[in-house]
Design a protein that fits this description.
single chain; alpha/beta; Aspartate Aminotransferase, domain 2; Aspartate Aminotransferase, domain 1; seven-stranded mixed sheet; five-stranded mixed sheet; 16 helices
């Protein structure tokens, strides 16, 4: 069966796009748990390795189950090509390292996930690559940083954990003027709520661990971009360094994608209600959510996104003691650094995901000891509000 009409809407593409059926005509995607593939003759093997004949060779390079996932993600993202990786961080690191070399310069938004921040601040300089952080919300800072050549720009929007919004269209235009490739981590928005390619991005990366699997089961990542860049720049790095995705994990993520549109819509609706509730709480200094009128970049968020997403970040007035007292008293919400799960999960960024960037850098990002990031799940929203209410009663 051929792929569905590309004009179909995302919810339909999530179910039908990218299908590869074997001669057994199975309905569900098949799981190809094989490391290698065989050839009818030595002549065919030679032709395959010479790129004269298309044929699966080795699951480190490509695998039918992984290929189905890649084709499905490319369809919903409106991307020319996709490669899936073992984790979200493998996607980010490979997307950067595949095309950078000593002497290049990278400009990144300061508000990055802790491991992404480490790659820019620590790893890239070890290879002779100059790096510079800017305030992602400050267009003037981007203009100054991109007033001279750069090889690559890295940003996430909304950011982790403070839900900062970067003007993707404006930053992409500035980056392209100096020849920089724009890499956008779109994991918080998901491909359902934001389309970075339409706003000027060159490469989009995901942790498929999050909303795509969405049920806390497996790790995975994805890199999407133009066919020429994927094949000529990314694929040689990917093929030879081996950050490949397990076929089993790909199969699990394929199953998760079938319900992602339903989950993200329901979780986003609940997240907005919880953010509104938290904003009215006397124990909360501020509640951050892109659709709230109080969000400092609401207009920009709504110009780029079709919804606010599944994450809420809030700051308790009592600092770390208050945050820990509340989190330790949760009955439904679990403490975990994961996100995008069907189960609601809370984390304290200052002591977990952003611990290693240091107190000074956290202060620049607005991450205080009272900051809590809440990934809203599929539980009844009133039960979640009730859980937050009773948990906050434990704050002294």
């Amino acid at each position: 069966m051929s792929d569905p009409d590309p004009k179909l809407r995302p919810a339909t593409q999530l179910i039908h796009a990218g299908r590869i059926r074997s001669n057994l005509d199975e309905n569900a995607e098949a799981l190809f748990l094989t490391s290698g593939f065989v050839y009818e003759s030595a002549d065919l093997a030679e032709a395959v390795f010479a790129n004269q004949v298309e044929h699966f060779q080795y699951s480190r390079f490509a695998n039918p189950t992984v290929t189905m996932l890649e084709q499905k993600l490319a369809a919903i993202e409106d991307a020319e090509a996709c490669r899936c990786t073992a984790t979200g961080m493998a996607a980010v690191s490979a997307a950067l390292l595949c095309g950078l070399k000593a002497g290049d310069r990278v400009v990144a938004a300061r508000a990055l996930f802790g491991s992404c921040h480490w790659i820019v601040s620590t790893l890239l300089p070890q290879y002779g690559i100059a790096t510079e952080f800017v305030d992602g919300a400050d267009l003037d800072a981007w203009r100054v940083a991109l007033s001279r050549p750069a090889a690559l720009v890295l940003l996430e929007s909304p950011s982790n954990p403070m839900l900062e919004i970067v003007d993707l269209r404006a930053v992409s235009a500035l980056a392209h003027e100096v020849g920089a490739l724009v890499v956008v981590d779109n994991v918080f928005a998901t491909p359902l709520l934001q389309k970075p390619f339409e706003l000027g991005a060159d490469v989009v990366v995901y942790s498929a661990t999050k909303h795509m699997d969405g049920q806390g089961r497996v790790l995975g990542g994805a890199v999407l971009g133009r066919k020429k860049w994927i094949e000529e720049v990314f694929q040689p790095f990917f093929r030879n360094t081996g950050p490949s995705l397990s076929p089993f994990n790909a199969w699990m993520i394929l199953k998760g994608l079938e319900t992602m549109s339903l989950r993200v819509a329901a979780q986003s609706k609940s997240a907005e209600a919880i953010a509104t509730f938290l904003e009215a709480s006397p124990q909360v200094a501020r509640s951050l959510y892109p659709t709230l009128a109080s969000h400092p970049q609401r207009a920009l968020a709504m110009a780029q996104m079709s919804g606010g997403g599944t994450l809420v970040t809030f700051e308790l007035k009592g600092g770390k003691a208050a945050a820990f007292a509340m989190m330790n008293a949760f009955r439904i919400i679990s403490i975990s650094n994961n996100l995008g799960d069907t189960k609601s999960l809370a984390t304290h960024p200052a002591t977990t995901t952003h611990m290693r960037i240091g107190a000074e850098e956290r202060a620049k990002l607005g991450i205080t000891d009272g900051t809590v990031r809440l990934s809203v799940g599929l539980e009844d929203v009133q039960d979640l509000i009730d859980d937050l209410t009773q948990a906050m009663q434990n704050i002294k």
